[in-house]
Write a structure and sequence with these properties.
By secondary structure, the protein is α+β, with helices and mostly antiparallel strands. The chain is built from 21 helices and twelve strands. The protein has three domains: about 240 residues, no CATH class; about 200 residues, no CATH class; about 100 residues, no CATH class.
Amino acid sequence: MLIVIGTFVLNLPQRNARANENSRTTEQCDPHFFDPDHLTKLLSTNKIETIADILKKTPNCYKENQVAIYSSSSAQCATPKAPRIILYLNESTEHPDTDAKSMCSFNSGNKADYAELYQKDPTLDCHENSMECQRFNPKTSRFEYYEVKVPKQDDGKTFAATKKDSITHAYVTKINPPQCMTSCHRANLQNPTDPNPRPNIENYPNWPGFYGSLHDHLGLSDVELKNYLEKFSDSKKTNPRYASLPEVLKIDSSGNPTYPGENSKPIVNLQNQLETENYKRIASEFLAPPETLKKIWPYRYALLASMACNDDVGHYSEQKGATVPPKYQFPIESFLPENVKNSFSKNYQAVASQVLVLHQHNIQTLEKLQDKSGAKALDQFAEQFKMDMANDPLKPYKEYRLDDQDDFSNISRLAYLGLNLGLPIEDWSMSFQKTVDFEAGRHNAREILANLAPKLLDPKSDADLKLDLDKGFGSEIDEKACELLRKKSLIALGADDSKTKVTANCSVVPDANTVLPPEAMDLKKTVSGLPQLTAPNTLDLCIKCHVNGTATPIPFDQPAALAVALKKDGLLQKITDYINSGEMPKNAILIQDKNSGKDEKADLIHYFKALSEVRE
C-alpha cells in the first residue's frame, strides 16, 4: 500500500506479516452483511425469527472465519460443549469498496447447555436470544456495538420473557446501547456523542478460553483438543446454529489438528484485524477535537518518531548482527528537551512498569493453561517468556531496557507520549484488563503512522522528510529521517539544545467548569489543628496542573486552604473518584503493587481525607 502525502511517502505492507497470504476461491460475498442497516433490512424483508434463520442467510466468507470460545467474559455464556462463536470477514480478503468490517457472535441458544452456570447465579442472562455485533466505522475511526434480538428459539418455541426483554419480533438495537458501554467495552460515558468503546481480546500469542488458546495450535492443549473433538463436535450434529457452520478443523494423517487454507490461524487473523482498526482509533485521539491537535502540535515529530525510529536495541542488531552505533540510537526521550524530558521521566517508568506487570500476568496464564493440558513446551516463545518473568516489573525503564530483552515497542513509546499529553492510554490496549500493555501488533501499529502523518507533517516546512517503512528498521533512509525528526522535534518544542527552557502542557480535569467557593480559594485562610502530614510525592502532579498549570485552580500547594476546599461541594469525593478511576492525576499512572505494598493511589487519597477531617 503506497500512501503519498504531498512529498511524503509512507510505504506500508499490504497486511500484517502474521496474516495468511493464501488465495481463496472467488465467491459472492457481501462485506456489509453484518452491518446494522443490512441486518435491519434482512429482518424486515424475510421471515426471520431465530438466530439459525440469520445464519442460513450468512455468506460462507463469514462462516469460514470462525473462532470458538469455550470460556467467555462476554454477556454470552459459553462452555466447551456450547461455545460462543465469532464470525468475521478475514482481512486478507480484499474489499476495496469498504473499510468497515462487521462481525457477530452467538452461543448455542439452548438454556439447558448453561444449566451449571445458571445454578451458580440464578440472576444470570446468557443472551441465548441475541447476536452480539461489532463494526468499525472508518468515517469516525470508532467501534460501534449493537445486538440482534430474536423472539424464538431455533426449534420454534418462544423465548421466555425476562424483566429486561419481552421480544415479539426480531430487531437490531440502537448503536452502542448502555449494556455494551459499561465495563465490557469501556466507553467514555461522560461523552455520549463520542463514547469511544474498544474491542476485547488478550494479547498474542495466548488467548485464555479460546479453542486454540496457545498460539492458534489446538494440538498444544490435550484438554482443548479432546473437548473440541468430543463435546463441541457432538453439539454440531444436533444444534441448528452450529450445524450451519462449515467444518474448519482438519485432522492430518499424523493425527495433528490444523486449520487449512486461508484462515490457518483464525484467532491471529481476528486479532490482526482488530489491532489494525484499534490503532486507527488510537491515531484519531491525537487529531480530534481541535484543541487536542493544538496541544500535541509541538510534539508532532516526537510522536512520529515513536512509531518510525529505533530504540537503543532491537531491529538494527537483528538485521546487521551488531549493536546500534551511538549516532543511530533513538530513545524516545532524546526527542525532548531536557526539562520536558525531566517532567516526563516518571511517567515513562510507570508505562514501562505497567507493561511488564501485564506481560507477567499473561505469561503466568499461559503456563497455567499448559499445566492443565499437560503440554510442557512453550514453543518458540519459551526463552522470551522466561526472560520477561525474570524481570522485576517495578524496575525503572532505564534499568531494564538495555539488557537482553526486546526494545520498548513503538506503540509503548507512543503511549508514553500520549500519557503525558493527557490521552486515555489505559484503554488503548484490547486486553480485558485496564492496562498499558501494547506489546502485541507491532506491525499493525504502522497504521498509526499512516493515519498521523497526513495531519502532523506540513507539506512546505517538512518537504525534507521521507518516512519509507518498506526499507525496514535500521536502513540508512530510516536513520537519516530519524536524525531529522529529532532535530525538528527539539526545535518545535522550543529548544535545539538542552539549555532552552520549555514548559510541558497540562491537561484540564474532566470537571473543568467546577467553580470553587471564594472561601476555598482564599489562600490566607487558616485552619486550627492542622496535622503534621507528609505529602506524598504524587501531590506534585496535582500541583503541576491545578496550581501552576491551566486546570481548575485548587490550592494543592497550601494544606490549610486545601483542608477548607475539600469540605466544599463534594470536592473530596470528586477527587477520590477521579483517582480511583485512573482519570487523575491526568499525567500519570499511580503504582499499586500488592507484593511490595506500594500503593500510590491509597497514599494520595489518605492524605486528602486526613486534611478534610481537620476542624476549622
